[in-house]
Amino acid sequence: MLRWVQNFRWSSLLSDLKSKLTNDLPVPICTPTATERCDLSRTRHHPTTCPCRVRLAKEADSSDIVQFMQGNVLHSEPLLRSLQVSTIPSQAVLLDYIRLLLRDSFTLLALANGPPERIVGVAISRRSCPWDGKQLIERADRTRCDQLRKLLYIWSIVETEPNLHRHFCTRCLFEIALLATAIDSQRQGIGLHLTQRSLELARDLGFQFARMNCTCEYSSRVATKAGLECHWTVAYHHLVDSAKQPVVLPDPPHTHIKVHAMALFPGLSIKSSCR
């Protein structure tokens, strides 16, 4: 009960934080808020520079984020490309799902320095709960599009099989659900920068553990560099249908799905989190 109350308090804090961000009034510089920490291009923890500015997304950014995901993810992310979800009508349904995800997410934007200001990276994070896998299965069962149904089933397996909630003895983890970099801005450290900032935001919001589901090799490498350890993996050729045929086979090196996780505070152990 105490842990549930703590999770509720932090979710309430997030709502207050989002409502403050929609206000046009500037935040006082002397106030050390999570928003200000996310708006820096370097910190004492990560001295390397990045060619972007990171800030929390606002409600008004939703349409730009969806447009960014449509142009930079649907056609290039290995799993989505292999399932051909960029085709109509699966594209429209998936974009609607992203819009729904944005409503209850903690989203960070990477913006290019200098005019014009444009999005070069997005990290959509959310609360990961034990029932998320079941909800994805229910959504898949309601989906008529075959490609999208396969995607949702795969996501449900990735959410459920690692059993991280039982492993860490918690009902709620911080999950970096979607991480994307603009096609013309890759290999500049933007993905790592957004991952590090997302983990800092998780600490500010009081989360004890974080996870990142990596459906491609590149995001797995970013997760490792950010300090998340691989806790579960499965080869794509092991995900088979009723005819024992692989459901999807992305091109190499994207041969495995990997789920990374970490404790967000030094000294935090599984034993102590169960008390």
TrEMBL record:
InterPro entries: Acyl_CoA_acyltransferase (IPR016181). It comes from the Eukaryota. GO terms for molecular function: N-acetyltransferase activity. This is N-acetyltransferase domain-containing protein.
